[in-house]
Amino acid sequence: MSSSNRPANVEAFREAVVTRRSVRQFTEEPIPEAVLQDCLDMALLAPNSSNLQMWNFYRITSADKREQMAKACMSQKAAKTAAELIVCTGHTRNWRKHAKEILNQWPGDQPPKVVQQYYGGLTQFMYGMVPMDMLGFGARAKKGLRDSIGLVRPMMRTPNTEADMELWAAKSVALACENLMLALRAYGFDSCPMEGFDEQRVRKLCGYGRHEFTVMVIAAGRRHPKGIYHERMRFDRDRFIHEV
Ligand SMILES: Cc1cc2nc3c(=O)[nH]c(=O)nc-3n(C[C@H](O)[C@H](O)[C@H](O)COP(=O)(O)O)c2cc1C
């Protein structure tokens, strides 16, 4: 995988960013298989917390499941007309396995000591759930410990709870989702990220367990002429960009 430092093409990137819209209606044109796979590969290159890759992407392939998934997405037109539906999930438990695999698959010979300490030790403290967590004692103890250390030196205060872990995973998954959508745009295709869905039904259709959760469902395909509902609108940048 390339680690080249060559500059990316700003105008090509801007074109993808500016022309990406949430498209609510697609034509019947399929996305070529190679294009879709390339876009998914680019999604997997997104930055992610500690490189623990706590994501999954479920491409819905059977016609029957496609129909049910569109219904689970509240029968939104984007879902009903999409050439592809991709369910993007976060996982709050696979980090432990991934931490081990990072050490095993480290490029070159042995991972440096600092890397071994990071994945062998620090991640265990950061993301490991303490026993008895079902009653919330572990999470509270962990928070107390972090806050105590935080009195004397900078300390990461989260994650301590399952909800914290979901937030932790969702950040990285969302970045991968954006990569996927921009990659599709760069190929001339479009997308609609959706959080308007029935979590229980989406979960059942994909078949994942309780430590996995849906971040968004991405509808993708060729933009229909009626697929954009209105001009793009954003508030003034001064409202959001602060210098402190
Ligand atoms: C997490 C997330 C969830 C969204 N859910 C939906 C949705 O369920 N249905 C929909 O039509 N658009 C959905 N959108 C699209 C937003 O409405 C859209 O991004 C926003 O209006 C800005 O428009 P633009 O993407 O065309 O710039 C979602 C976007 C995000 C990031």
Helix content, binned percent: 40-55%
Percent of residues in beta strands: 5-15%
CATH class of the largest domain: Alpha Beta
The number of helical elements comes to 9
Largest sheet strand order: 1-2-4-3
State the fourth-level CATH superfamily of the largest domain: NADH Oxidase
Spatial separation of the terminal alpha carbons: 37 Å
Spans of at least 5 consecutive residues whose pLDDT stays below 50 are: none
The SSE order reads HHEHHEHHHHEHE
Shape: globular
Helices and strands in order:
Elements: H1 10-19, H2 33-43, E1 55-59, H3 63-72, H4 77-81, E2 84-91, H5 95-104, H6 113-127, H7 137-152, H8 162-186, E3 190-194, H9 199-206, E4 212-221
Antiparallel strand pairs: 1-2, 2-4, 3-4
Could you please describe the fold and organization of this structure?
This protein is of the alpha+beta class and about 240 residues long. The chain has two domains: about 20-95 and about 165-230, NADH Oxidase, CATH 3.40.109; about 95-160, no CATH class. The protein has helices at about 10-20, 35-45, 65-70, 75-80, 95-105, 115-125, 135-150, 160-185, 200-205; strands at about 55-60, 85-90, 190-195, 210-220. The chain has a four-stranded antiparallel beta sheet, sandwiched between helices. Helix 1 (about 10-20) crosses helix 8 (about 160-185) and helix 2 packs across helix 8 (about 160-185). The mean pLDDT is about 95. Flavin mononucleotide binds near residues 21, 194, 196 and 216.
Quick overview:
The protein has 244 residues and is of the alpha+beta class.
